[in-house]
Structures are given as structure tokens and as C-alpha cells.
Amino acid sequence: MVKLFWVTIVIGLVFIKWVDAYHINETELSILEAHEGYSFSNLVNQPRMVGITLIQSAAAKGAVCLDGTLPAYHLDRGYGSGANSWLVNLEGGGWCNNVRTCVYRKTTRRGSSNFMEKAIPFTGIMSNNAQQNPDFFNWNRVKIRYCDGASFTGDSEDRAARLHFRGQRIWLAAIEELMSKGMRFAKQALLSGCSAGGLATILHCDEFRALLPRTTRVKCLSDAGLFLNVVDVAGGRTLGNFFNGVVTLQGAQKNLPRACANHLDPASCFFPENVISGIRTPLFILNTAYDSWQIQSSLAPPADDPRGYWHDCRLNHAKCTGSQMQFLQGFRNHMLNVVRGFSRSNQNGLFINSCFAHCQSERPDTWFADNSPVIGNKAIALAVGDWYFDRAAVKDIDCPYPCDNTCHHLVFR
Question: Would you name the residues annotated as active-site residues?
């Protein structure tokens, strides 16, 4: 059996074992999300381990991590038909919304390159294996590490706390470095990311398009980045308040999409639902209708559930009561309303499956395995490939839970 190890930046190590579902030890979930990492000791085809590269030119531009160290990326060179195609992946890993959480983040790989792995496995959409990643396996594939805490948008500092909020500068420094590595000659390019990286993909999509030659085919893929500003179980807006803290603390206001910022407050423009209608570049939204992270950290966080009414449901969808499932169906309905106008555009793509999960493009079991989740018998990898290469229109929305038996649900304990 494949064992998947997820590392959480908040508490420590959390382990998932694939049996009939994924089981995760319960932690005190905060707004900072878990990061997906893997161990593949039992796989026949080991994933390629790709070494880290520090961006040496970044310091002079003030493009540094929270603690002032150099930002970094991992690049696996393309070859053959993919030699002039580029897949740029923005790493996810939560946010920090106040000095205390950002200071803590400095002591992790989410805030300092001193703590980043020297090599990481490239899996799912990042894989170099044609059987596991048929459309992008031989592209230049690069993961830009995430060490700012504001989805690559901040541009400020807190001298007293020695915090550098330079996400926007990191983004630009990384892209400039990749241009010098050959991306300026790209014939095809795809910007992607999962979770906080999926949000960053949406926020930077048009900017990515503008930085590349007009002749380049440029598209964007956001995985689990469709964060919704919905009312939580206590009647408040947990995520809205949190995002307001992130944007204000890190000075992200001036770097959010102008089409949104011209008529809405900055925190609202950190929510994809207020941004996607104004994006001009082709965008694919991959999301679960019952996103596990959003359920646990913004819909029913422990702080808003002092009596523990949502405790069991939050950790295991099979333990939800009828009224709780009705509440979660309302979340799904809100998501579908958000993407209704977006999906009318011929250039956009959509894959919303009815799973209790979070992030599916970088996991080998959900991207393109024999038992990967499907909608209409089409796996996520094929749906994304059909959309990117204009082989077919992809506007796939699953029927409501519990109709889909191909899901890889996450079950926490």
C-alpha cells in the first residue's frame, strides 16, 4: 500500500495511511493549513527528487522570506517536445495574519529557506513519468517555494519583529530568474498551485500572462484555491476576518487584481469569488465541493464550536447529522453559484467533484492513477489536459454527495 505523509506547519507531523480512506491524527487546526508531503518507499516508480536553488539576485531587490533569507525554487528541466514548455507551480502552505503567527512561521520552511528541504519529490502534475502525468511529464517543471505567508502578494515589513513581507517581490524575482533560464522563449506555459498556492495562482494569473511573450500559450490552474467568504457555524465570518488580517499586516492591498480592487475593499479581493470574473487569462478551477480545509478551518473551526457539536462531523463526513450535511450542501451551493458566470466563458475550465478532500493535482493517487477520482469517467489529469490543449471543453460539476464513489475522502482522527 502507498503511504502518504502529510506534514503540518502548525503542530508537527501528521500521518495518513491509504486504506479505504485517509486517516489523519486530529490536531488543533488553525487557519494555517497543512502542507502535502509524501513518502513513496513502496512505489515501483520512485518520484524524481529535485534539488533546491536559491535566488541569489533576490536580496538586492528586497525579495526575501519572512526572516530575510533568500527565496528558492526547484526546477526539473524539460526535454523533447516539452523543451520549450513551462509549468510553474506556486507552493501552498497557509498564511499568517498577525505578528505572532508570522514570527512563528519564520522558524519553519514556510518563512525561511534555512528550513526548506534540499530536494523534494515531483509528483502528480509535477511528475516526469509519462504514465502518471501524460500531458506535462517532459515540460520544464518548477516549484516556487512559499515563504511569505500572503500568497505571494505582500510588500511591507515590521522592523521591530524583524519580519519581511515581500511575497510580491519574491514572485517577480522568481519569474525573472526563470525567464533567464529559458522561460522567455516558452511556447506554452501553465501557472498552477494548490491551496494558498492555488489562491496565488488566481491572484497572479493575468500578471503571469503579461510577463510572457504574446505568442506564448498561457493558462492557469488553481487547485483547492477557491476559498469562499461564507458564514461559519457560529454565524460569523472566520475566514473573512482572517484574510483581512493577512492583507492589512502584509501590505498586500496594492498587489491585488485591479479589476476587483477598484470597487471592493482589499480583503474582499483576496477571495477568489470576487476576482475570477475579472481574469482575462484562461483559468481552470479544480476544487472539491466539500473542501476539507475550509470545513475544518473556516466553516466549523473548534473556536466557533465550544460545545463540540461539529467535532465528529468536522473530522469524518460519515458522522455528520442530516442537518450538518444540509449545512455543507449549502456550502457546495454557494460554490456553484460563485462559478456559474465564470463557467460561461469558453476559455475557462472547471472540475468540481463531490469529495471531502483538499488538493488533488500534486498527489499521484488523485491526479492520474488507476483509481483516481473521476467525473464522467474522466480523471483530473485528462480533464486538465483536454482543457489546456483545447481538445475538449471541460465544465465538469459532480452530483452532490454521496453519489460519487471514486472520491479519496480525507478522514481525520
Answer: 195, 291, 358
